[in-house]
Model the fold of this input.
Amino acid sequence: MKRNGTIELEGMEFHSHHGCLEHERREGNLFTVDFKARLDLGKAAETDSLEDTLDYGRIYDIIAGQMDTPSNLLEHVAGRIISAVGNEFPWLDDFSVRVSKRNPPVNGTAAWSRVTIRHRHPGTHGHSEPDEEPDTEEKPLSL
Done:
């Protein structure tokens, strides 16, 4: 029986060295990553077997590996994560990654800068919501 659902890893924290500015690359910053996959969970719901679902422990390891490699742009980091997850799980048709940088270097107050990229295999339909960002709790900005 088909049982569409989501598997999410939210709020993964990393001290990484992404950014265009020299001090960002040298000192690093706090980054969070959110992952959301939309898939059929019916078989796993019946069998109680890790082999019948998406191993989110492995997803974490893939993301952690990509966060260790410095990039200038959050878009590049998110794109690398999307590619690495897609290569490891080619059957995964619909998932998204959001990468957030704490206190981005702007001329004012901003708690986070964020980039979300969604991978959606052509022909994926039925169980997926329209293009959307992963749901996460909003954090208030200091004014």
Q: What stands out?
A: The domain at 4-120 is CATH 3.30.1130.10 (GTP Cyclohydrolase I, domain 2). Confidence is low (pLDDT under 50) at residues 126-131, 133-143. The longest helix spans residues 74-88.
